[in-house]
Amino acid sequence: MSESSVxxxxxxxxxxxxxxxxxxxxxxxxxxxxxxxxxARIDALLPQTQCGQCRYPGCRPYAEAIARGEAxxxxxxxxxxxxxxxxxxxxxxxxxxxxxxxxxxxxRMVAVVDEERCIGCALCLPACPVDAIVGAPxxxxxxxxxQCTGCELCLPPCPVDCIELRxxxxxxxxxxRRAA
Length: 180
What we know:
Number of helices: 5
Structural class: mainly alpha
């Protein structure tokens, strides 16, 4: 095949790809799925840890279950009492303490990798629901504290127990300073 016969084919393929892309872009802006505004409002009140402690695979599925009346508003340990109160106010229900069956409530924590002990197995990477762990196989990993939700899902797959939960740096007292 000569170069002069290939160029028109490439131009036609590029033109077709551009037209299909433009049509899909237009459709995406005009054709939105019917999103339930109540689900969105419930989801906005949840802590977005995506931890699964509520026995749903993430905060959005839990919000959908609450909206359908299939789940109670007290199943989110990371959200604690403040989330239960906010959900009760939104839904006109009575607030009650978080159900201990779903786990204890505690202050926000973040995962921290002990870099000396990390073997770079990468088993923690797929376990993190918010992609807060950075690393590659056979290299040390670290956690982006601002993205970590403290869900604890990275702890069980670690074969050397080099990940622990700590208070976020902003919440820790400065080193070397004592309370008066």
